[in-house]
Prior knowledge:
By secondary structure, the protein is an alpha+beta fold. It has three helices and five strands. It has helices at about 20-40, 40-50, 125-135; strands at about 5-10, 50-60, 70-80, 85-95, 100-110. A five-stranded antiparallel beta sheet has the order 1-3-4-5-2. It is elongated, with a radius of gyration of 16 Å. The model has no long low-confidence stretch (mean pLDDT about 95).
Amino acid sequence: MPHLTDIKVRGYHLDIYQHVNNARYLEFLEEARWGYLEDNGDVEFFQKLGLAWVIVNININYREAATMGHTLQISTRFSKIGSKSAMVRQEVRIKGSDTLAADADITFVCLDQKTGKAVAIEGALKERLEQQLQQG
């Protein structure tokens, strides 16, 4: 089951056209990913292994304008695990409707915090990410 995060659209999120500025969606998606990591205990898990998530690619589609007063519900789930990177799928819906405001595929690698280099996704790390994938 995807992790859900609600964010209320405020006036300072809007652009001159009175809908959510495209750059704000990146902040909303990041907030939802942090919530996902915190709620699943992954922050502690990654810290214990001395690893950090690093985003290497974001592909985002803007589908429908969200405006002040809307509450956005962001679903976050793992969608793919490779040998060196993994992908998270996020969808932003206007809460209370089926309206998809935006969706994104986020690719990340895990860096060893001591060396600053990407590590292979194997062992305990792979098991943890595969558990997340199965829950999505």
